[in-house]
Write a structure and sequence with these properties.
Oligomer: single chain
Radius of gyration: 18 Å
CATH superfamily of the largest domain: Tetracycline Repressor, domain 2
CATH architecture of the largest domain: Orthogonal Bundle
Order of helices and strands: HHHHHHHHHH
Number of strands: 0
Largest sheet: none
CATH class of the largest domain: Mainly Alpha
Structural class: mainly alpha
Distance between the termini: 19 Å
Helix content: over 70%
Number of domains: 2
Shape: elongated
Number of helices: 10
Length: 207
């Protein structure tokens, strides 16, 4: 997508490395994730990240430049490493799998606090917000084929927007996670998937 392409082209840490450079990137991003999960975005310090990763400060400053640069590259890496979309043979099965994946991510002891820190950073920093939009754009694009297959099987009305179907699954889960701070449970995920499926079948996402 255009936003993701712009991020890849312009943001610090955007060149995909190989060899030793890949190991440096992996170590720095691992340290960044741990620091975000433990202390949040505003405590992110490049000197401490370099020390935790076992790399030189100059390398971190030259390549990532700022805490925002670290978060941007971390989100890109998370999108790249995320599990691929399911193919259970039915739209219902695929949407339930998507809901469970989101649930497992947000309730994970490490990933949950990390996402909370990134969302908080995006609320007050436009570059972080751009990076977060890029992450979700990538994940939505990777899961859109489950709705496209549903369309091909006749499970959805013609003209249904696949992205909107997938977005409808995760939206209530993220609302509970980031806004209302209500508990997330397997039942919550099942309801989100069922509601998205019912709305899609009724034509709510036809464009």
């Amino acid at each position: 997508m255009e936003l993701e392409a712009r991020l890849n082209a312009t943001q610090p840490g955007s060149v995909r490395p190989g060899g030793r450079t890949a190991k440096v990137r992996a170590a720095v991003l691992e340290a960044t994730g741990e620091a975000l999960a433990d202390n949040g975005f505003h405590a992110l310090n490049l000197d401490r990240i370099a020390a935790a990763a076992g790399v030189g400060k100059t390398t971190v400053y030259r390549r990532w430049g700022s805490a925002v640069g670290l978060v941007t590259d971390l989100l890109r890496d998370m999108a790249e490493q995320s599990l691929p979309a399911s193919d259970t043979g039915s739209l219902e099965g695929d949407l339930r799998a998507n809901a469970r994946l989101v649930l497992d991510t947000l309730t994970d002891p490490r990933m949950g606090p990390l996402f909370r820190a990134v969302i908080a950073a995006a609320a007050c920093d436009e570059e972080c917000a751009d990076a977060l939009r890029g992450f979700y754009a990538t994940r939505l694009s990777e899961w859109a084929p489950v709705a496209e297959r549903g369309l091909a099987r006749g499970e959805l009305p013609a003209g249904t927007d696949p992205l909107e179907v997938v977005r409808a699954v995760s939206a209530p889960l993220y609302y509970r996670f980031a806004v209302s701070r209500e508990p997330l449970t397997p039942d919550t995920a099942e309801r989100a998937a069922s509601a998205a499926l019912a709305a899609a079948e009724a034509g709510a996402y036809v464009v």
